From TrEMBL:
Keywords, ordered alphabetically: Flavoprotein
UniProt key word Flavoprotein: yes
Gene name of this polypeptide: flr_1
Family the UniProt entry places it in: Belongs to the flavoredoxin family.
Residue span, Flavin reductase like domain: 12-164
Organism this protein belongs to: Sporomusa acidovorans (strain ATCC 49682 / DSM 3132 / Mol)
Cofactor annotation: FMN
Name of the protein this chain belongs to: Flavoredoxin
Residues annotated as transmembrane: none
Domain of life where this protein originates: Bacteria
Amino acid sequence: MKKSLGTKVVAMPSPVWVVGSYDDSGKPNMMTVAWGGIVCSTPPCIAISLRKSRLTYTNILMQKAFTINIPSVRHVAEADYIGLASGKDTDKFAATGLTPLKSDKVNAPYIKEFPLTFECKLLHTIELGAHTQFIGQIIGVKADEEILDHNGMPIVSLVKPLISCASDRAYYAFGEYLGQVYSMGVTLRDSLMRI
């Protein structure tokens, strides 16, 4: 029997992404977010949700651009720190030793040490309540060569992305390989079609 938990934000897992942006003086900033995901394939779009009090919120509205940087498990301490410190009074790049690089696609920095980056131009903002959703059109993707397969696509086991869980407020490594999308259910689909 299921037990009602009321209204809670306990969907799992959540990505651990680091958003890169520039302030009004061109200073790079980064912020860790867990509320985000791919929201459209054509045009390719990604969304994140931020509170208005965050420097990144102001930066994205001003620059109309941001990057999504995927940290690997080896950067869990840095990703956590980036979510704890405020860019309003801390240079998070200097504090963590991470390197900001200027995107050649959008007016936002990306993080050299993180294996995968999405360069986004701001497409829409949606006021939701405590958070505002920023929908960015993916203008470019940058990836370390060593995480790519023979077709030039990122391999999740080499990226080693972090995930988080809202219910226990913890970080986790990515899980085990189970099978290919649109193939695991083929046997079930075919048996149901015979009924």
